[in-house]
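Q: What structure does this chain adopt?
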Amino acid sequence: MRTIRQNTYDIVNPNSKRFSEDLYKLINGRKISFGQQVNSGDQNIDGQMIEIANTGAANTQVNVIHNLGRVPNFIDLKYKNVSGDWYDAGVTWTKTQVFVKFTIANMKVRLFIH
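A:
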């Protein structure tokens, strides 16, 4: 089923306008994506994929900067080059950073922060 696109030029509230346009895209089959590149703007899901090339020493705090503009709820480990894991560093997450630790030194990881 395809819908007819509503004219949005007369919607004054920018949030209402974006909602209407996003809803149209969603209904008409736009795929939700983690994006094609790491740390890029091509992601259309509410979160950010972050790559850390080297996590440093094992069990030491890593400050991960994100641009969500809100405090994240979750982190998903999407890629790792060795069989280590991550855990919360015990520091309160902020609108710009999360704080994690890794069980193995010098891991390369991709985290999806959302």
